[in-house]
Design a protein that fits this description.
The protein is α+β, with helices and mostly antiparallel strands. The protein folds into two domains: 6-84; 89-273, no CATH class. 32% of the residues lie in helices and 39% in strands. The protein contains four helices and eleven strands, in the order ααββααβββββββββ. A six-stranded antiparallel beta sheet has the order 6-4-9-10-11-8, with no helix packed on it. A hairpin with a 7-residue loop joins strand 9 and strand 10.
Length: 275
């Protein structure tokens, strides 16, 4: 991530170097000039010499003031631009379907199956349980740029399963490699679709009406100046409801049965850092 004050720091160093060079030149000139006048004009009176040095130092003070003013105006202008053209990414909607033609990325919530790659190669996919392990429910989490400037280098940095109410060791895991690029540019009002998928068949505790699972996503993005990288954290709750008890493909844990489930989106909390 770039230092948001990196460009300002470089400008300050450049201006400082220029100021030092000019002050050095003026100082050298201020000492050489009286010597030249001594040689060619026959010397200066004390009053003339004091007046000369006063004008030199006055010019130096003016120069330093101009440089400080320019630095302040530069910093203020950059700060104003960061506010004026600030991108703001937020959830626009979450729904089971999205027909819009926008960029898409998939985030899979998976439960480890009992099949190995060798078994699949040998034709075990004919077993109906294999298809159950690969059926899922998907939610389209639409992220929209609601700010006044474009977002650049948009990335899904991390995804975590924060809590599974029915099982402290649920074995559910994120099956997508992260970080995941969401686009080099997201213009004003542009959207990107993060498709979150859940298994349709799960092991749940017996005789419970519903369960909850919390998923935390962390996105990051730059502004158009690439000086201020922001982070968006989204904590979403999904409800898991058992629909129908199925024949258990294998033993899981005591007190658990195998269910076809319905997944419902309940809501999200969002937090933006680095504004």
């Amino acid at each position: 991530m770039k230092n948001e004050w990196g460009i300002i720091t470089i400008m300050n160093i450049t201006n400082l170097k220029k100021t030092i060079v000019l002050i050095t030149l003026l100082t050298v000139v201020s000492f050489i000039t009286p010597l030249l006048l001594e040689v060619f004009l026959g010397g200066l009176s004390l009053g003339e010499l004091l007046s000369f040095y006063a004008s030199i130092f006055g010019a130096l003070i003016t120069l330093v003031g101009v440089v400080m003013t320019l630095n302040y105006q530069t910093r203020q202008s950059m700060s104003d631009d960061e506010i004026k053209y600030k991108p703001i990414l937020k959830i626009d909607s979450v729904s089971p379907k999205c027909m819009d033609f926008i960029g898409r990325r998939e985030l899979h919530i998976l439960f480890p199956s009992s099949y190995s790659i060798n078994e699949v190669d040998q034709g075990v996919w004919e077993d109906p349980y294999y298809y159950q392990y690969n059926e899922n429910t998907e939610f389209h989490m639409i992220i929209k740029n609601k700010g006044r400037g474009e977002a650049t280098a948009v990335s899904l940095d991390s995804a975590k399963i924060e809590d599974v109410s029915w099982d402290e060791e649920s074995h559910l895991y994120i099956g997508t490699s992260l970080p995941l690029s969401l686009g080099d540019e997201l213009l004003i009002d542009d959207r990107v679709d993060i498709i979150v998928t859940f298994p349709k068949f799960l092991f749940l505790k017996k005789d419970e009406d519903y369960n909850s699972i919390f998923i935390e996503l962390t996105l990051s993005y730059d502004d158009m100046f690439e000086r201020n990288r922001r982070k968006l954290t989204i904590l979403s709750e999904f409800r898991i409801e058992p629909l129908e008890k199925e024949i258990t493909p294998r033993f899981y844990k005591d007190g658990y049965d195998y269910y076809q489930v319905e997944v419902r989106y309940m809501g999200s909390q969002q937090k933006i850092e680095g504004q």
